[in-house]
Amino acid sequence: MKQHPSTDVSTPTGAINVHPGISHGPATPVVPRERDALRAAQLYYLQDLTMEKIANELRVSRSTVSRLLAHARRTGLVNIEINAVGDKTPVLVRELERTYGIQIVVVPTDGSLGEREILDRVASHAAHALTSLISSGMTVGVAWGSTVQALSNALNRKPTHDTVIVQLNGAANPQTTGLTYASDILQRFGAAFTARVEQFPVPAFFDRASTREAMWREGSVQRVLNIQERMGLAVFSLGATASAVPSQVHRGGYLTPEEDQALRDRGVVGDVATMFFDANGNDEGIEINERATGPTLESLRRVPRRLCIVSGRGKLTALRAALAGGLITDLVLDEGTALELLNSPA
Q: Dihedral of CA 272/276/282/283: which sign?
C-alpha cells in the first residue's frame, strides 16, 4: 500500500496535517465527497481562505463547506494537534507522570459540567490518544463497559491494515447474551481502524470455576485466547460501584446482591475486564475471579501498552489501586480526578 505525502503546517500553538489520503493502487478512484473535502481543507487550513471564499470557489453553500471540513477532520484527511506555547507539559501532568511513571493526558473540565458531559469530554480526548497508539499489524484488546462504549462513539477514523480488535472478556449474563452490546463497541473499533474483529462469545462469569477450566480447553475458545496473547495494546476502563455513571458490570445484572456484598467484604475496590482487584491492585484470593472470563492481571501486565480511561472521582479508589498494581501504562482522565489523585492521600 502506498502512502501519498502529506502537507504539514506548523503554527506557534500547534500543527495541522492535511493528508491527500491513502492509495491502494494507481487506479483507486477518488469519490467526489472525498475530493471536495480535501480541496476545502487545503483552502481553509493551508491557504487561510474564509468559508465564504471557499464556497464561491467550489460553487457550493457555506454550510456545505462547513460539512466538508467536518468530514475531513472526522475521516482523518485533517489532523489537528494543539501544543501549548512555552512549557508544553502542564504542572499537573508533569507531577502525575513523575509520581506514577506513566503517560498521562488530563482533560480540562470545570465544576459546571455534569458527569455525563465529563465522560463525553474524556472519551473524545481518549479517542485522539488511541489514534496515536494504534498502528497496522497490531492486536488490540478491548474491554466493554460504559466508558469504553463512550470512547467507541468518539473514535476518529484511521485506516490500518492487518490490525485485529479482540474482545477481552465475555459479556453474557443470566439476563442477556450481551452480544449486541459488546459487538456494537467492537464493530465501531473495527470500522474506525479498518480492522478485523474477534468476539469472545462466553459469559462474563461462569457459574463454576470447573466450567471455565473445561471451556478454556475448547478449541474455539483457545483460538481467541491465543489472539489475546498477541496483544500489543489493551484498552479498558475501571469498574467501580461508587462512580456517578455506574459501571456496566454493576448495573447490568452481572452480579447477584450476594456476590456484590462478598466483594465488598473482601476489600475489592474495582475491576478490569471483570477481573476484580483489591486496594493493592492484586486479584489473588478473590473467588469470583476463578469464574471470570477476563485476562488475569498477571497476563494484562505483560501487554506492552495498557490504555486506561477514567471519568469521574467515583473511580478514584479503583484508579489508585490499579496504579499501585502496575496495570496502566497510559492514562486519560478528567482534571478533577487528576487533582484528587495528586493532592489527596491514598
A: negative
Q: Which domains does the chain have, with CATH numbers?
A: 2-82 (1.10.10.60), 91-343 (3.40.50.1360)
CA-CA distances (angstroms) from residue 317 to 147, 278, 293, 327?
A: 17, 10, 23, 14
With contact defined as beta carbons under 8 Å apart, do 133 and 196 qualify? no
For the entire predicted model, the pTM comes to 0.75
- Between CA 145 and CA 142 the distance in angstroms is 10
Record the cell numbers describing residue 5, joined without a space: 505525502
- Check residue 172 and report its DSSP letter: B
Give the number of other CB atoms < 10 A from CB of residue 25.
7
Maximum distance among all Cα pairs of the chain, rounded to whole angstroms: 70
- Dist. CA 123–CA 185, nearest whole Å: 13
Q: Which three cell numbers stand for residue 313?
A: 472521582
Share of the chain residues as helix, strand and coil, in percent rounded to the nearest 5: 45, 20, 40
The pLDDT tens digits for 92-147 are 999 999 999 999 999 988 777 888 899 999 999 999 999 999 999 999 999 998 89
264-276 per-residue burial string, b: 16 or more CB within 10 A, e: under 16: eeeebbbbbbbbb
